[in-house]
């Protein structure tokens, strides 16, 4: 999974919904500087962080990743 392009997509989504990064940071428990680094392609996004972000944004885990990169229970 290309974490950097995912960060860009998440940032674009947050901006498009008129949300603040501070809201996402507080709701996920991810410190603001860390979240900012992830969204600005300066830090990888770990799976547990990605899951928290998707939950707070109310989107499915496959929203920001290409179909071929989504692991399903059947594939595991």
Task: Give the secondary structure arrangement, pairings included.
Blueprint lengths: L2 H14 L4 H8 L3 H8 L7 H11 L19
Organism: Natronincola peptidivorans
Pfam families: HTH_3
InterPro entries: Cro/C1-type_HTH (IPR001387), Lambda_DNA-bd_dom_sf (IPR010982)
Describe the structure concisely for a colleague:
GO terms for molecular function: DNA binding. The chain has four helices and no strands.
Your description of this structure?
The structure is a single chain. With 76 residues, this protein is mainly alpha-helical. It has a single domain (3-69), classed as lambda repressor-like DNA-binding domains (434 Repressor (Amino-terminal Domain)), CATH 1.10.260.40. 54% of the residues lie in helices and 0% in strands. It has helices at residues 3-16, 21-28, 32-39, 47-57. The longest helix has 14 residues, at 3-16. The radius of gyration is 12 Å and the shape is globular. Pfam families: HTH_3. This is Helix-turn-helix domain-containing protein. Residues 10-64 form the HTH cro/C1-type domain. One of its GO terms (molecular function) is DNA binding.
